[in-house]
Amino acid sequence: MNLKDENTIFKPLRVLRHSKINAYFSKNSEDFVVREKPLYEFSGEGEHLILHICKKDLSTHEALRILSEFSGIKMRDFGYAGLKDKQGCTFQHLSLPKKFEKNLLNFSHPKIKITQSFIHNNKLRIGHLKGNSFFIRLKKVLPNDALKLEQALENLNKIGFANYFGYQRFGKFKDNYKEGLAILQGKKMKNVKMKDFLISAFQSELFNRYLSKRVEISHFVKEFSLSELGEIYKISKEEAKNLKAQKQFFKLLHNEVLGHYPFGKCFLCEDLKKELERFKARDLSAMGLLVGLRAFECGEGFAKKLEQEFFREGLEFKNQMQGSRRFMWGYLKDLKYHYDAQKAHFSFEFFLEKGSYATVILNELLQDEDLEN
């Protein structure tokens, strides 16, 4: 495939196959709430002040700018564990040097509230969070669609979900990755942060396409015979048998890269039978490639052949990117849901590990690509 010249917009395959569910979703502060869960307890001592803030309809950078302008603290002195959605009500932690605590004593803003403060040893860095809890309210949900939502949520809770990158990575026209590829091919860009972001969009696009193929394989294993699988994917009868023998939805491949779930070291799937048991116990996940020099290498066989096919355009520029691995299969935690028939509101809550997108879950449930526009 030639990503730069491709005109069609890629749409990842869904795990669930129910028909579209009719519901109205608005990413506002009443119907979309995100709560960040820190990676660890704050120590209570040290030279850094941790602020727990609630912001409404502001990006993290916009909130930091407001706090900076009020206090005189430079933007670079703030730390944060993750960027939160602009739309909706979001709770997150920020850090700043403790010496500036008095600068924020009289802070007041209609869209930002400081709810708590802690003392800690370290500045917060990107990734210093366990994950996020989400509350989503859907409106105009008829009883029949509420039942479909309940079933879809229970299915996802049981089997897990494909951990696609969300549409936020790809821009309004879903073509950020083309700009990323152009930069790798030599296009100049002075803004280093934007350059890195666009290159990451290119890595994310390849990841999503590969994961979509793995979802396809997982569906096809159930639907086709051994000989048909062999013909479709050019694999041996033994490899087809290994796939057919797996009862869980998402199929693992011999010699692919696995990682301890949700975060841990990467290793090769050399003993498929043994690793399948750990996968079913949610102790590990298959790790998709984010192309680059530091990415853990896949082993030989069908797994490598498939990676080389889908990441070919990225591997050409491997030396220009650091690279890593990202888990392809994730799980909901702490799922709750409630249907208010009188108001026709369907509300649900769940926790996702860091790096997963609530909008991906919502698209999977509603089967509605228009949510991304």
UniProtKB/TrEMBL annotation:
It comes from the Bacteria. The gene is truD. The keyword Nucleus does not apply. Residues 160-337 form the TRUD domain. InterPro entries: PsdUridine_synth_cat_dom_sf, PsdUridine_synth_TruD, PsdUridine_synth_TruD_insert, TruD_catalytic, TruD_insert_sf, TruD_pseudoU_synthase. The keyword Hydrolase does not apply. One of its GO terms (molecular function) is tRNA pseudouridine(13) synthase activity. Keywords: Isomerase, tRNA processing. The active site is at D85. HAMAP family: TruD. Belongs to the pseudouridine synthase TruD family. This is tRNA pseudouridine synthase D. It catalyses: uridine(13) in tRNA = pseudouridine(13) in tRNA. SUPFAM superfamilies: Pseudouridine synthase (SSF55120). Its EC number is 5.4.99.27. Responsible for synthesis of pseudouridine from uracil-13 in transfer RNAs. It comes from Campylobacter vulpis. Pfam families: TruD.
